[in-house]
Amino acid sequence: MKMSMTAALLFLAALAIAHAGVGADATECGKQAGGKLCPDNVCCSKWGYCGLGKAYCGDGCQSGACCPNRRCGAQAGGATCDANQCCSQYGYCGLGPEYCASGCQSGACCEKRCGKQAGGTKCTNNYCCSKGGYCGLGSDYCGTGCQSGKCSGAAAISAEIFDDQTTLSNETIIALPSAE
Fold first, then answer.
1. How far apart, in whole angstroms, are the C-alpha atoms of residue 51 and residue 65?
2. How much is the average pLDDT of 7-34?
3. Would you say domain 68-111 falls under CATH 3.30.60.10?
4. How far apart are CA 12 and CA 143, in angstroms?
5. What span is annotated as the signal peptide, if there is one (predicted)?
6. pTM score, two decimals?
7. In degrees rounded to 5, what are phi and psi of residue 121?
8. Which residues are paired to 134 by β-bridges?
9. Which top CATH class is 27-67?
10. Exposure of 116 by Cβ count < 10 A (0-12 exposed, 13-18 middle, 19+ buried)?
11. Range 112-171: architecture per CATH
């Protein structure tokens, strides 16, 4: 009897500790949180929690880098992908060249040109313009050399401007202030 009472108390204590962190306000994303997205394109599960892996990115994934079985485009009645993912030519949501390159139907498609390579055109939907002049998201687009959009840092932008003498001469407004 003493052993079962101790086991029962330990079980109740463990249950209380586990339940303490999962209240009604623990929802982080998706329809459960007013459409809020997870940071860094992390998946939002069907239950409204941010994370990675099949439980978050699999069936019912609401946004983020959901598994590539999510349908979109002409193959899915014109549906679009969430969280800036590309809709491939075959009608699947995802990130990377297999989704965003040739035949991409919507999202951050690689064919969208920008920056000095496209006459100063800026990307839409807060996408970054990569050093090579393509619209997209992630470190390849928003990192070092990013030309416009939500770039990772000012150092990346200024390095690109000062690396190109033509751009520097066209951007005299950004000259350093005088010591007066």
1. 10
2. 56
3. yes
4. 49
5. 1-20
6. 0.35
7. -60, 140
8. 113
9. alpha beta
10. middle
11. 2-Layer Sandwich (3.30)
